Amino acid sequence: MKIVREEEGATLVLVALSMTVLLGFVGLATDVGILLRQRRIAQTVADSAALAGVTESMYEGSPSSVTSGMYTAASHDATMNGFTPGSSNGAANSANGLTLTLRVAPTISGYSGSGLVQATASFATPTIFMNLFGIHSLNVASTAIASNLLNSDGCFNVQNGEGLANPAATMGGSSQLFGQNCGVTINGNLSMGGSSNINAKFVTASGTITNGGSSSITGPVSQNAPPTSDPLSKLQQTANQPQIDTTAKTCTAPSGTGMSCIYNFNSGNLSGTLQSNTMYVFDKNVNGGNGPSITGSVTGSNVTIYLADNIPFSFANNGNLNLTPPGYGHPCAGSLNPLCGVLFDAPSDGANGKGTYTCSHGKGNNYGNPAEIYFDFGSSTSDLEGVIYAPYMQLFVQDQGASTKLANDVIIGNFCSQAATLKIQGYDSSDSPLARVGLIY
């Protein structure tokens, strides 16, 4: 008797087993693909949150711990990328499980110091194939680190003293210049006397630095360094300057600013509250060429004071001067407003060219040598939140024990300080057009 053996059934079993394995790989590949996609999303959220957090930290003087403002900014940008995190730092959103955690002291090896913000975005992702084996979700997390210390030009720039015998910057008496979160660059020589002090991230001069009396510098010092270029030279372009009609006595603000423009306001006598979102233009036709002056206390938001023809500016009393520039409270990066962050704008060298600077008050009209922006705050404390841009003028400051706070940068031709305290707070309330933030991890 012959036994017949059929193999069709065995083939079906093999096919069934193969299909099971194949479907398993497909399911596993699907889960892996979903996880990779979700990780890219988490990385986008972490990147945007780190950048937002570190930008906000500049407004707050680079705090030593995460503030509510930093987390709010980071949470806003995370939400713009499709995920709304929990209501506080490190807390999960009960609806989507997204947790956003900020740190000012990164946990990643090799990244430390001030000006850094680490953001970690994490959330649970449901599985498909692995769910069959009891693995219902997997946690996805991505981390990014951003820095606000990418501007190497410094925030206090003296531009126009290169090659001159006289110092480009002079500090005497008990003058103090604080710029702990930024640097000081000087094209030319620096002369310090009395008990004057500079406390900055770095101090660099293209000439020599002379310390007399008990003067001192806190921070790294470099002499005979290459001169630095004007970091806001774009303001010297015609398109970024107002159009002035001296006959009609009118002016038009540059395109893209959205600002009103007032020509030689109140014959150059500024007082009270200035009109918001306005460019105040002054030229040699005001005060006989001696420029505008301020009396009493003056406040103003979203304003730019434009000094044409190198016209002087004077503030000399015990009043308070509290001004904010266009774009105040918002990042200038990517802004179409060329005046974003700029409080004083004096781009022209007038009739002077490069003059001979002396550390003394009383530089005359636009035919002087050179004109000055003069601040004597007496015993008052003032707050200037924007950039002072006057690369062909002298900034002359003095007071009687007061303190002047600048949130942004100074770009001037020459600097003279006699017993004044000038604090550059590291963009504590406003965003400088020179500020640079970026991802470093």
From TrEMBL:
InterPro entries in the record: Tad_N
Protein name: Pilus assembly protein TadG-related protein
TM stretches of this protein: 12-36
Stretches for region Disordered: 214-234
Compositionally biased tracts (Polar residues): 220-234
A Pfam family per the record: Tad
Native organism: Occallatibacter riparius
ATP-binding among keywords: no
Domain Putative Flp pilus-assembly TadG-like N-terminal per the UniProt entry, residue ranges: 9-54
UniProt entry keywords in alphabetical sequence: Membrane, Transmembrane, Transmembrane helix
